[in-house]
Amino acid sequence: MDAAVLESGRYRVLVVDDVEVNRLIAIDLLSRLGVEAAEARDGLEALWAVQNGLFDLILMDVQMPVMDGLAATSAIRALPTPVARIPIIAVTAGWHIDESRCAASGMNDFLAKPISIESFTVKVMKWLRPPEDRFGH
Questions:
Q1: Distance (Å, rounded) from C-alpha 43 to C-alpha 64?
Q2: What is the pLDDT of residue 99?
Q3: 1 is a domain residue
Q4: Within a domain: residue 77?
Q5: Around Cβ 110, how many Cβ atoms within 10 Å?
Q6: How far apart are CA 118 and CA 121, in angstroms?
Q7: Residue 11 and residue 73: Cα distance in Å, rounded?
Q8: What residues contact 67, with CB distance under 8 A and at least 6 apart?
Q9: Closest CA relative to residue 58, chosen from 47, 66, 67
Q10: What is the pLDDT of residue 101?
Q11: pLDDT digit string, tens, across residues 55-103
């Protein structure tokens, strides 16, 4: 699936980051793919957003005030399905945050900052595919 196949507004992604410029960059990249985005400034806002909205994917910063991304992801995974099954991509610049800690909290994938447009697009497109297509089945 490439970006040209996405129907504008068909997918909705929650961008969670405490840094406004990071949210704006992600939202801009998503809009180029035809994806609608909502935003949250910390894990607690993200938890509220997923309980009150429908999302196909979450881009979750790991290090944030109030509630970090690892705790927010664990809380989301404890919610009833289908909310608990929303794919979550860890987004972090933290050199000491490793992929295994992200996976242990329930995150599905990992994206390191600074984000390249190519890696961002590949990860988002992978997780917006239907579940049976995400791993080449």
A1: 7
A2: 74
A3: no
A4: yes
A5: 18
A6: 5
A7: 20
A8: 42, 43, 44, 46, 47, 75
A9: 47
A10: 80
A11: 999 999 999 999 999 999 999 999 988 888 999 999 988 656 677 788 8
Q: What was the pLDDT predicted at 3?
A: 44
pTM: 0.88
* pLDDT surpasses 80 at 47: yes
Give the number of domains in the chain. 1
Q: Is residue 69 part of a domain?
A: yes
Side-chain-side CA neighbours of residue 50 (13 Å): 31
**30 contacts: CB under 8 Å, gap ≥ 6:** 13, 15, 36, 37, 124
Residue 91, domain extent: 8-131
Burial zone of 106 (CB within 10 Å; 0-12 exposed, 13-18 middle, 19+ buried): middle
Could you tell me which residue, 93 or 21, shows the higher pLDDT?
21
Are 39 and 14 in contact, with CB atoms under 8 Å apart?
Answer: yes
Strand 109-112, strand 88-92: pairing:
parallel
The pLDDT value given to residue 131: 58
Domain of residue 117, CATH code: 3.40.50.2300
| Domain membership flag for residue 2 | no
The C-alpha atoms of residue 66 and residue 29 are separated, in whole angstroms, by 26
Count CA atoms within 13 Å of residue 6 on its CB side: 22
